[in-house]
């Protein structure tokens, strides 16, 4: 099956795969060859891609998934492959978000609070996915 993961900035992944597991609002679903046609929302979480018996991980913050015959397209708000995650930068982003969130909410706009909260969630997700990189080799494709 062909998997294409596209964000507003770039094509994050474009490769033939054997299986994809995706977080959705109703729970995780796995896509195998000859899967029925499907369109669904994608929730924030971890994508699992299996290629020739090897498992790879990506972080995604949401989007939409379309399955047609043996073509899978994921239009993501944000997605990153585990081997592209810079752990040091993520730790710094998490620290900045924690500092912002621990300040008194007084004087902070709703938008600023929401941005800090979103940055915190993304940092935690990226750290979770990057920790699996140590257990697995680099993900193929681009």
List its salient traits.
single chain; 142 residues; ATP Synthase, domain 1; 2 domains; five-stranded mixed β-sheet; five-stranded antiparallel β-sheet; 2 helices; 10 strands; disordered C terminus
Give an overview in words.
There is one protein chain. By secondary structure, the protein is an alpha+beta fold. It has two domains: 2-82, ATP Synthase, domain 1; 84-132. The chain is 28% helix and 39% strand. The protein contains two helices and ten strands; from the N terminus they run E-E-E-E-E-E-E-E-E-E-H-H. The chain has helices at 87-102, 110-133; strands spanning 2-6, 11-16, 19-24, 27-31, 38-42, 45-51, 54-60, 63-68, 71-76, 79-81. The strands form two sheets. It has a five-stranded mixed beta sheet with strand order 2-1-9-8-5, with no helix packed on it. It has a five-stranded antiparallel beta sheet with strand order 4-3-6-7-10, with helices on one face. It is elongated. The two termini are 15 Å apart. 24% of the residues are buried. Mean pLDDT is 81; it is low at 136-142.
């Amino acid at each position: 099956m062909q998997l294409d993961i596209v964000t507003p900035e770039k094509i994050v992944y474009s490769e033939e795969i054997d299986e994809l597991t995706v977080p959705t609002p109703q729970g995780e679903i796995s896509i195998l060859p000859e899967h029925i046609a499907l369109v669904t929302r994608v929730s924030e979480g971890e994508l699992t891609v299996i290629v020739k018996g090897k498992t790879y991980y990506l972080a995604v913050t949401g989007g939409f998934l379309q399955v047609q015959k043996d073509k899978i397209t994921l239009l993501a708000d944000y997605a990153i492959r585990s081997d592209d995650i810079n752990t040091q930068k993520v730790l710094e982003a998490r620290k900045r978000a924690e500092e912002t969130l621990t300040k008194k909410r007084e004087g902070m706009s709703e938008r600023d609070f929401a941005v800090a909260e979103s940055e915190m969630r993304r940092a935690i997700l990226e750290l979770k996915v990057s920790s699996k990189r140590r257990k697995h080799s680099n993900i193929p494709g681009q």
